[in-house]
Specification:
Layout (H helix, E strand, L loop, with lengths): L6 E3 L3 H12 L4 E3 L6 E5 L3 H11 L8 E3 L15 H10 L4 E6 L6 H4 L4 E5 L4 H10 L3 E2 L14 H8 L5 E3 L11 E7 L1 E6 L5 H8 L4 E2 L23 E5 L15 E6 L13 E4 L2 H17 L4 E5 L7 H12 L11
Parallel strand pairs: 1-8, 2-8, 4-6, 5-9, 10-11, 12-15, 13-14, 13-15
Antiparallel strand pairs: 2-3, 3-7, 4-7, 5-6, 9-10
This protein binds threonylcarbamoyladenylate and magnesium ion.
Magnesium ion binds next to loops.
């Protein structure tokens, strides 16, 4: 792939209009959302969508989510909106939720990787929505990382990943959620969570008055979302998970450079003696800072990152999912079954 000259755009109306023009002309624009930065293209333009796969090095059988500025536009993409879908749209959209519905036939197969359904998301981030309104077409967008790497949650991360690959990058703020959207499939009878996120299983159960099926739990058999087949979210450093701070190694004279991502007040870490330590206040703060911490530790040349493995309440379930994939299941000490 030839290197592109990448335009840096700000969030003023003139620049967002430019971003919209680039999308309509078939270009690629990186834009901020409340979950992670996305790499967008006109979802109606098969060549533009093919450009996304090339820019990310993404396998062609992994479908893209389509973004809209407003819920009332969902019927332009979906052929059918079930009563469950209507309840979820009302409760959570705009917001960090993607729903998979049966697709209308005019969506190119490059977007859905040949599947009969389409993932639809309406971000709540005001810059994202202004950009999508200026685009005036549905925008197909995966996370703006190279395939397999952590998703960008800041402008710096997005620029580093996509400079030379996208036509423009919008300089927004840091993503407030920090993990990718919850993906719910509603097109195959059952309500299935294909990827956990900020909108939790309990949140969905409350609205639908029934518990959705957590597909992440079924590790046998073929992956339910094509994207679940691939390695994901990996920093350059080796990632090791821990559940108690006394599992951390003595760090006085490390021959390898380690970084520590901790949660809550310290129970064990004394003076970290020059070891980079990032300590999140609570699990939402931890989710928000997870990928940014990987970025910082990689920049510092860490060869190993120890990250706390939180309990599954709220966004904790999504953090656990990302950590398990990023670490390839590696723990400092095998986690207890209780
Ligand atoms: O928060 C997010 O969802 C971000 C922002 C940019 O909106 N986007 C994002 O896209 O995370 P991506 O492509 O990195 O992850 C989308 C996941 C992939 O694992 C893909 O396989 C799955 O969604 N997916 C998309 N359409 C699908 C479909 N029709 N059926 C099953 N899985 C689908
Ligand atoms: Mg992704």
């Amino acid at each position: 792939m030839g290197r592109k000259k990448t335009l840096l755009l700000n969030t003023n109306p003139a620049d967002l209009k430019k971003a919209g023009d680039i999308i309509r002309r078939g270009g690629l624009v990186v834009f901020p959302t409340e979950t992670v930065y996305g790499l967008g293209a006109n979802a109606r333009n098969p060549r533009a969508c093919a450009g996304i796969y090339a820019a990310k090095g993404r396998p062609g059988d992994n479908p893209l989510i389509v973004h809209l500025p407003d819920p009332f536009k969902i019927p332009t993409l979906a052929s059918e909106i079930s009563p469950d879908a209507a309840l979820l749209i009302e409760a959570f959209m705009p917001g960090p939720l993607t729903i998979i519905l049966p697709k209308k036939t005019n969506i190119p197969s490059q977007v859905t990787a040949g599947l009969p359904d389409v993932g639809i998301r309406i971000p709540s981030d005001p810059v994202a929505r202004d950009f999508l309104r200026h685009a005036g077409v549905p925008v197909a967008a995966p996370s703006a990382n190279l395939s397999g790497r952590p998703s960008p949650t800041s402008f710096e991360m997005a620029w580093e990943a996509m400079e030379g690959r996208a036509d423009a990058v919008i300089r927004g703020g840091d993503s407030s959620v920090g993990l990718e959207s919850t993906i719910l499939r509603l097109s195959r009878g059952e309500v299935e969570i294909l990827r956990s996120g900020k909108i939790s299983q309990e949140d969905i159960a409350r609205v639908l008055e029934k518990k959705p099926f957590l597909a992440e739990d079924s590790l046998d058999g073929p992956p339910p979302a094509p994207g679940m087949r691939y390695r994901h979210y990996q920093p350059q450093a080796e990632l090791v998970l821990y559940t108690r701070e006394d599992q951390l190694p003595e760090v006085d004279a490390p021959e390898e450079r380690i970084g520590i991502l901790a949660l809550g007040p310290s129970t064990h870490i004394k003076d970290p003696m020059g070891v980079p330590l990032i300590r999140a206040r609570d699990v939402d703060d931890y989710a928000r800072r997870l990928y940014a911490s990987f970025f910082v530790f990689d920049k510092l040349g860490c060869t190993r990152i120890y990250a706390f493995f939180p309990s599954p309440e709220g966004i904790g379930q999504a953090v656990r999912d990302r950590l398990l994939k990023a670490a390839g299941g590696r723990f400092a000490e095998p986690p207890s079954k209780t």
